[in-house]
Amino acid sequence: AQSVAQPEDQVNVAEGNPLTVKCTYSVSGNPYLFWYVQYPNRGLQFLLKYITGDNLVKGSYGFEAEFNKSQTSFHLKKPSALVSDSALYFCAVRIGAFYTGTASKLTFGTGTRLQVTL
Amino acid sequence: DGGITQSPKYLFRKEGQNVTLSCEQNLNHDAMYWYRQDPGQGLRLIYYSQIVNDFQKGDIAEGYSVSREKKESFPLTVTSAQKNPTAFYLCASSFAGGYNEQFFGPGTRLTVL
């Protein structure tokens, strides 16, 4: 079984301040981890992923995430928030393997709404 | 432009009717997926398909059906057996292999009248 937890329903940040959106996971094996962003009434956009290698992953729009195996976390970060970053953010996980025959079946968290204010 | 298209953007259904949501991709992806999104519940997987003429149930398949007759197309039918179909439906696709990210369409909002 695999699961993802996003413990905060909403995160509020002032523009220019650093932001963190938290994600913890549970899988019985090596995880593949993903972050997506969703703007109102739109589909999800891929931000970044961790497959293997460096624990710090850099993605689109200045976002990055740090994989921490001991804490089973994959928090999303950005050094300086913008008002335009306000959106719904989803973390997702699947069991890592080159190809398991089960496609890329992801389990998503419930989402964290990021509100950046002036 | 390459990408995933979903139609219609908004769909209204009367009780007891079946409706079909369209999903098309021109990314040459092998796998395609249907998700349902409800407020506060994140995304839940309805069906997925790895190759043409093959598909598997996801976590909430009851009341839904799919087909995969072409690589580019993965339509979803919401049947009258689905008790609470009002939701935002998202289609996605990816290359085979679990390390590949999924690309999402713009979604269809279904409302039951």
Give your account of this protein's structure:
The complex is a heterodimer of chains A (118) and B (113). With 118 residues, chain A is an all-beta fold. Helices cover 0% and strands 51% of the residues of chain A. In chain A, the strands form three sheets. In chain A, strands 2, 5, 6, 10, 11 and 12 form a six-stranded mixed beta sheet that branches. Chain A is globular. The N and C termini of chain A lie far apart (41 Å). Chain B has 113 residues and is mostly beta strands. Chain B is built from no helices and eleven strands. Chain B has strands at 4-7, 10-13, 19-25, 31-37, 43-49, 56-57, 64-66, 76-78, 87-94, 103-104, 108-112. The mean pLDDT of chain B is 92. Chain A binds chain B through residues 9, 32, 34, 36, 41-46, 49, 51, 90, 94-106, 108-111, and chain B through 4, 6, 31, 33, 35, 40-45, 48-50, 56, 58, 88, 90, 92, 94, 96-107, 109.
Give a brief outline of the structure.
The complex is a heterodimer of chains A (118) and B (113). By secondary structure, chain A is an all-beta fold. Chain A has no helices and twelve strands.
Task: Provide the fold topology.
The complex is a heterodimer of chains A (118) and B (113).
Chain A: E1 3-5, E2 10-14, E3 19-21, E4 24-26, E5 31-38, E6 44-50, E7 56-58, E8 64-68, E9 73-78, E10 87-95, E11 107-108, E12 112-117
Parallel strand pairs in A: 2-12
Antiparallel strand pairs in A: 1-4, 3-9, 5-6, 5-10, 7-8, 8-9, 10-11, 10-12
Chain B: E1 4-7, E2 10-13, E3 19-25, E4 31-37, E5 43-49, E6 56-57, E7 64-66, E8 76-78, E9 87-94, E10 103-104, E11 108-112
Parallel strand pairs in B: 2-11
Antiparallel strand pairs in B: 1-3, 3-8, 4-5, 4-9, 5-6, 7-8, 9-10, 9-11
Instruction: Please report which band the strand proportion of chain B falls in: under 5%, 5-15%, 15-25%, 25-35%, 35-45% or over 45%.
Output: over 45%
Quick one: biggest sheet of chain B? 7 strands, mixed
The poorly predicted ranges of chain B are none
The total of beta strands of chain B comes to: 11
The end-to-end distance of chain A, rounded to whole angstroms, is 41 Å
- Largest interface: pair, residues per side: A-B, 30 and 33 residues
How many DSSP helices of chain A?
A: 0
**pLDDT averaged over residues of chain B:** 92
